[in-house]
Amino acid sequence: MTELLFLLLPVAAAYGYVMGKNSAKNQALELNRQITSQYSKGLKFLLDREEDQGLEHLIQLLEVSADSVEHYLTLATLFRKRGELDRAIKIHELLLNQPNLSASVMASCRLELAKDYVLAGLLDSAEEHLVILVKNHNVKALDPIINLYSQMREWRKGINMYESHRELFTKPQHFAAIANFYCEAAISDDTPKLMELACAFEHKIIRPYYELGKDAFVKNDHVKAIYYWRKLVVNCTNTAPLYIKELEQSYIELNLKNQFDDLIEELLPQGGVLIRIKHCQSLLEQGQLHQAIDFLTDSLKREPSIRGFSFLLQLLGNNNNKIQAVLSEIDKLVKSYIATKPEYQCQHCGFSSHTLYWLCPSCKHWETIGPSKGLDGY
């Protein structure tokens, strides 16, 4: 009998293990069933616009399981897309009040809540959460807070954020934004030297050099104007239409027109049609009309341009008095056509305008709008 008991002990142990495992499995299934039921009920309340009851059920569910956070975020995103920002805000606030969530999940919830606040026009609340994220070295918060400070015109706050957290700034668009913050603050405070801080950026930027050159030109400091604009046109030749006439004038004022002509010749390989027109004007001043016509004709064969064609009509008219009047009338029509075309275009989203904007009204990117290119451009 005793031997039989010893033989049955392993069987009893195995039976107990199996029963215990099945019991735990059954408990887990029952818990999942309860969570699913509670979650479905909460969703139904929310979709039926019974928000208080819906959120109460969701709160209870969240206390039971943190694994459902992803569902909450998806639901909040759905509400935001539908324009129901109050619901999205409530869900994100609910999540932020849960103590059992990981730091990364909390950061995601805070970022999404800040986006809700921006769309709802609660900019101060959005700033509060984004500042917390930046202080915690969350790179994902940079784009939203830069856009927020641009919208609020809080240039100094953006500058202070950059100077306190330089290590977070890596994208060219970030540096373009902060460079423009320096420029806006300098213009607002009438302190042009503030722009010089932005000139120290290693990334390619436009506006500080443009504004400093413009300020110097207005003050008849042609040496400084040439210094800033020459740097800009060499590094960003596509910006030449913004200031090329004034740059030429500065060289003339200093009796250095020959140096301007040398600069134009240097820029020819990467320059647009305006640079080529300036080169033709230089040839005309030297009495080389035929060379100018040949150069521009060959150039237009390779890269057609309405503006280049207009200037070619003028050259041909100067070369033949008999058809000058006819060509002049044709040129008027071409110029009328050119006048209908936007002079500036965003290289990021394609927004076009007759006015230069440093911040694109469409995609909210800084320094992406420049002189238009292609057949109708510069």
TrEMBL record:
Give TM segment ranges: none
Q: Kindly list the GO molecular function terms attached to this UniProt entry.
A: metal ion binding
What are the record keywords, sorted? Metal-binding
* Entry-linked Pfam families: Zn_ribbon_LapB
Q: Which InterPro entries match?
A: Rubredoxin_2, TPR-like_helical_dom_sf
- Domain LapB rubredoxin metal binding residues, every copy: 344-371
Which domain of life does the protein's organism represent? Bacteria
The name under which this protein is listed is Lipopolysaccharide assembly protein B
